[in-house]
Each structure stands twice: as C-alpha cells, then as structure tokens.
Write a structure and sequence with these properties.
The protein has two helices and 15 strands. Strand 11 and strand 12 form a beta hairpin.
Length: about 210
Amino acid sequence: MKFRRLFAIGAFLIAALPGPASAGSNPAVSVQALFSKDDCEAVPGLLGEWIPGTGNDLSGNWTIQKLGDGEYRLIERDAHSDSGKKLAFDICVAHLDGHLFFDATGQVVGPDGKDVLEVDDDSFWIPVHLIGRLEIEKDALHFRLLDDSWLHDELNSGRVSLTNAQNDSGDYIVTAPSKELRLFLARIADDPRAFSGDEEFDRASSGGEILER
C-alpha cells in the first residue's frame, strides 16, 4: 500500500484514496514527527517536476514545491476530474548521523488550494508520519521507507527496541517520541533491509518526459 497508507482512525490505519495495494511490504508509520520544523533542511534539488518511477505506488505527474524554510510539498500536478482535489505529501528533510532522512505526512488539497480533512461523521482522523532514508541522484529521488515487515520481525525477536502500540491484528504503529525515533533511525541507517521500500521519482523535462540520468 506504501504511500497510500496515510492516516490512522484511532489506532487503526486506513487508506486516504481508494485503490489496490501495490506489491511489496507496507511502510511503518509513526504518530510522532521525526523532525521539528526547526530541524528541516533546505534541499533546493528537490524542487521541480517529477514522474513516479516503475513500481511506484503513485502515478501521473507531480511537483515538489517549497512550503517554508526547509519544508516541501510533493503534490499532484493535475486535480482529480470528479472532485478537483489533489493528493499531496508535506515533507521535511534533515540529516541524522550523516544520512539524509525524510518525514512525510499525507494531505488532500481542495480546488482552492487549502487542505481538506476528509472524515466520516462517526470517525476521527489522526495524521501519521511516513519516515525513511532519502537518496538523491542526478535527476532522480529515492524515498526509502522504513519497512513495516522488517520492524515487526525485529521487534518480535527482541533484536531492536522501539516504543510502539499494536492493534488486534498484531500490526505495529510507532508511538516513540521524536528523540527516541531519531536515535533509533540513526542506529539502523546502514541496514538496507530496514529501508527496503523504494518510491522512486524521475525528474521530468519541461515537456513532461523523463530526463536522462
């Protein structure tokens, strides 16, 4: 399900938009932010037009725009024809122990450009954070998400420790405070198994084609 796994209702996760789950593992999610706004770093190379790579959970054309100092928004370039809404992810990027990490939260943006909170009358929504390593190549981005299956196995075996909660199905949601979460990610930063989910984006030319790397 990857990027579509955006919000929790109480302690349970739901999908922000309908659609089939993609192959591969789901990402782990956190109820706490990885970084504060003061931690966010400016990465000008993120700005511009992007196209999801092969195997990405997203499709279509996307733009990364600046929200504030060190804060960015990855947003669909074209609105959905039936609602005029766009899916977006607000992103903070910063270094931990020499590695570049990201924190992303999903948003639904209305035709007026304002965030829309889509919720049923009998439920409430809690925004959750997708976290992981960010690797930047020439004209390509790799959002390597913290792998939920890996985390589940490591926590069950006792090989790692991280504050969390579980639902009735045994699924984990990370509840660790930001400081604990940063220390944990710094310790596992070099383990490729921990960040096995790759959401790749290729930079698009002015005509919408993928640039050569």
